[in-house]
Amino acid sequence: MIQISETAARKIQSLMAKQGINDGGLRVGVKGGGCSGLSYTFAWERQPRLGDEVFEDHGAKIFVDKKSYLFLKGTTLDYDTALLTKGFVFNNPNAKQTCGCGSSFGA
Q1: Is residue 103 in some structural domain?
Q2: Closest Cα to residue 31, out of 19, 22, 21, 43?
Q3: What CATH number should be reported for the domain holding residue 19?
Q4: Which pTM was predicted?
Q5: Which of 13, 29, 55, 80 has a C-alpha 20 to 30 A away from that of 92?
């Protein structure tokens, strides 16, 4: 399971409204690259793809492909509202190492 914090859910809903997307969610994934070997990806989607895992918390949905889910299982997606570090944050228990940028990890 992947959880979405209340703060992240509000931000997802706000950004979707700005994009004009009434239904759908945020696709999160993992790809090779970044400072620590793997990096997180984001994309807006109107609907899940075949085989996706779909998670919903606080009225927001995220879609995750099966390969990425192996690296994200148990993660909480949060949103940091601090002025200098504003953005989505993955609290990922599978990350053995992370880098200073916060968008890269090693498993």
Answers
A1: no
A2: 43
A3: 2.60.300.12
A4: 0.83
A5: 13
